[in-house]
Amino acid sequence: MEEAYELIIRNGDVVLPGEVRKLDVGVKDGRIAALGEALHGSPATTIIDAAGQYVLPGMIDMHVHFNEPAFGHWEGFRSGSASLAAGGCTCYADMPLNGNPPTVNIEALRLKTEAAAGNSAVDYVLWGGLVPGNLEDLEELAAAGVTGFKAFISNPGGEGEGRFREVDDNTLYQGMVRIAAIGGILALHAESEEMTSALGAAALREGRSTARDFAASRPPEAELEAVARALLYSERTGCRLHFVHISTSAALELIHEAKQRGLDVTAETCPHYLIF
User: Fold this and answer.
1) Closest alpha carbon to 43 in 2, 9, 83, 91
2) Is residue 158 pLDDT above 80, yes or no?
3) How do residues 9-26 score in pLDDT, each as one tens digit?
4) Sheet harboring 240-243: ordered strands across?
5) Beta partners for 187?
6) Considering only CA atoms, which of 250, 252, 270, 275 is closest in space to residue 63?
7) Which residues lie across from 31 on neighbouring strands?
8) What burial class does residue 19 get, using C-beta atoms within 10 Å of its C-beta: 0-12 exposed, 13-18 middle, 19+ buried?
C-alpha cells in the first residue's frame, strides 16, 4: 500500500537510541512518520538514497549568539544558521544580548524577529533578556513566544547606552519571581560582579593586562558565590534555573546538591574549559 510520504530516505544506517540499523525513514507533513524496511511511497514521493551514510537526529543548540539587529556583519542569521546546518544542527536558540537593541522588550523582539524571518536555514527560537528596568516586560515577552530569559550577574561587556546590562540582586530576585509565575526558565551567567570588577581594576592599576591577569580576575570563588546566591533565589521563588558555561567542579557540586534537594536546575559547560 502506498503511503503519502513526501520524502523517503532509503538505505541509510539509522542511529537509534540503542543500536544502528539499515532502515528507511518516511517523512510526512514535514515530520518523521515511519522507520522501516522497504517503505513504499507514491509516484510523487521524493527519494534520497543514503546508502553508506549515517542518518542521525539533528542537534539542537540552545546557546547561540547572533548579532542582529544592527551587527549582522559580525555574524547574522543567514551565515550563522548556514554554518549550524552544515554541522548537523537543525534548531537553535538565539541569545538576547548581541544585537542592538538587545531583546529585552517587545519592540526589540519584533526587530529581531524581522531580522530572522526568511534568513535562517534551520528552525529557531529566541531568548528574551532580564535586565534592570524590564521587569514589566517579561510577561509580554513570554506571551510573544520567547523560549526563556537570559541574565548576567557580572558585566557582559559591550558599548553604548542601550547595551545588555547585568542584573542587581533585586532585579534578579524579582525577575525570578515573575519568571516562575509564568512557568518560564532563567539562563544565568553566574559570576560575582563585585569580585571580578574589583580584581580587574586592581590588575589594571598595577599595569597587569595579560591573559593570565584577566583569568586571575575571575577566580573560582566569583562563580561559587554567584551560583550559591542564584540557587538560594531559585529555592525561594520556585524559578527554574539553567546555569550557562559553568567552569568549576565545585560549582557543579553545588548545583548537583540543589538538584538532589528537588530544585529544577541544570547546567552546561564549554569544551575549552575541559581542555584547558
Assistant:
1) 2
2) no
3) 999 999 999 999 999 999
4) 128-129, 149-152, 185-189, 240-243, 265-267
5) 150, 242
6) 270
7) 28
8) exposed
